[in-house]
Amino acid sequence: MTNANRQAAEQWVNDYLDLYNYAVRIGDAEWQQEIVHTLGSKEAHIRELSEHLVLRGLWLRFDAINRKMIELYEQLRDNRDAVDGERLREKVWELKRQRVIVANEIRAHRP
């Protein structure tokens, strides 16, 4: 588990403990039991949260690659220098390769 995922898991547990304390304070026994049950299956919830964070990170990378590709295509459109154009096309090609890798990772993490 990455440090970010560990922190998110700790925050999840802390949030549920805060909810439990609030449920105790207001005397809602049914809600307390529900929270205890949820905390009892925390591993599944944390695994789901971790998977969500991984997917979110992959989608952010995918979007960043697309934005960079758009910038490069605009530079290519405005560029008249053949050497510069070739360098830009190579960068675009590398970004396309990265995008395929990220897309495959996204597919691998989806149900």
* SSE pattern: HHHH
Radius of gyration: 23 Å
Strand-pairing-aware structural class:
mainly alpha
Helicity range of the residues?
Answer: over 70%
Strand content: under 5%
Number of DSSP E strands:
0
Note the total helix count: 4
Mean pLDDT equals: 91
Please outline the major beta sheet.
Answer: none
- Shape field: rod-shaped
Which stretches are low in confidence, meaning pLDDT under 50 for 5 or more residues running?
A: none
Distance between the termini: 20 Å
Q: How would you sum up this structure, described in words?
A:
There is one protein chain. This protein is an all-alpha fold and 111 residues long. The chain has helices at 3-26, 29-40, 42-78, 82-109. Helix 1 (3-26) runs antiparallel to helix 2 and helix 3 packs antiparallel against helix 4 (82-109).
Short recap of the structure:
The protein is mainly alpha-helical. It has four helices and no strands.
SSE inventory with pairings:
Elements lengths: L2 H24 L2 H12 L1 H37 L3 H28 L2
Supply database-style keywords.
111 residues, mainly alpha, 0% strand
